[in-house]
Amino acid sequence: MHNGDAAPRRAGRNVLPRLRRAAGGALSRAETERLVNLALAVLLASAIVTGLAANTSGTPAGRWLIVTHGVAGLGLLVLSRRKTRIAGRSLNRPRRRPGHRLSLTLAALVVITVVTGLIESTGTAYWLGPLTTMQVHIGSAVAAIPLVVLHFRSRPARPRAADLSRRTLLRAGAVAAAAGGAWVGWEALLRTTGAPGATRRFTASHERGSGDPAAMPVTQWLDDAVQDIDAAAWRLRAGSDDYDLAVLRRMPQDDITAILDCTSMWYAEQEWRGVRLDRLIDLGDAPSVAIASATGYALRLPARDLDKLWLALDVGGRPLSAGHGFPARLVAPGRRGFWWVKWVTSIQPSPVPWWVQSPFPLT
Fold first, then answer.
1. What does the pLDDT read at residue 156?
2. Domains in the chain, ordered, with CATH?
3. Taken in order 48, 49, 50, 51, is the CA torsion positive or negative?
4. How far apart are CA 12 and CA 192, in angstroms?
5. Tens-digit pLDDT profile for residues 223-244
6. Cα distance between residue 261 and residue 334, in whole Å
7. In whole angstroms, what is the distance from residue 338 CA to residue 225 CA?
8. What digits encode the pLDDT tens for the residues 59-101?
9. Which helix (H) or strand (E) holds 117?
10. What is the DSSP letter of 144?
11. Pairing of strands 254-262, 266-276
12. Low pLDDT (below 50) residues in the chain
């Protein structure tokens, strides 16, 4: 990790002074502090927004979100030296400003978020104690959000019309160039060292258990638990029809090669077998289809995708395990793992458009 940290610092030291001279000289200390804080606010917001958005994208078109997320995160490191000086002067004052403990807590959370993001990208540490690296990364970022709001309310770094000057724009470009260079350097370091993260998918997920369902991680959303379902008692309600497992197995089925890409930052390509949803239900004029699990977990998908969704009964030539959704789970190629509803019990037309729901399930 020391090499990855050093790259952005060198980039910041080499690029920023040259751009400062080209832009017309040094700024006052107060103005420099304001611009550094403003830049940090922009980078933090960019990292949070792109990080959340990237978890909803399962197609190559979303790669730019991952790249922007990484550049924004490394941009925080590029500015860390300057921010440390600002914070040091503030802490050394005879009378500290109110809320300095909040600021220190925020700084710690940001450091944890950036460091765990770098660790996750290497693919060398899936677990950090009882939590996954990604859970620590996301958890610290989410915990930082309210502190960011409080911090910038107490110490506002408001933009000004003068910030559109050539000098300020050149300085912003210098930071962006240094952050982008740090990202390129970090990716090159992963490839040079042969780290597992060098081959991660465009979503930044690492391969886990492709072609071997037993080796594929078992994960579920938030407070859900693995369901132990009695196959003989299980029923699927699709529209006004009821199906048991034996009836579903007698229906025409397809073999699908699809990648399950989980927001826990792993992916696995498997051979699935199941019944296409348009053979199970007629949505009529409904704009979406609602898929519900035995746990109460539910999502809506667009009606136009009905012939691109499957209710899978098997994976790798064998029935699903309990951890992977027995007796039936949704297979939704091109969508992230939280769309692949497990332990499905209901498939129903919905009068509500699919996009009228939380970007991520709330339970």
1. 73
2. 2-204 (no CATH), 208-350 (3.90.420.10)
3. positive
4. 23
5. 889 999 999 999 999 999 999 9
6. 9
7. 14
8. 898 999 999 999 999 999 999 988 888 888 777 776 666 667 8
9. helix 100-122
10. H
11. antiparallel
12. 1-9, 11-12, 16, 18-24
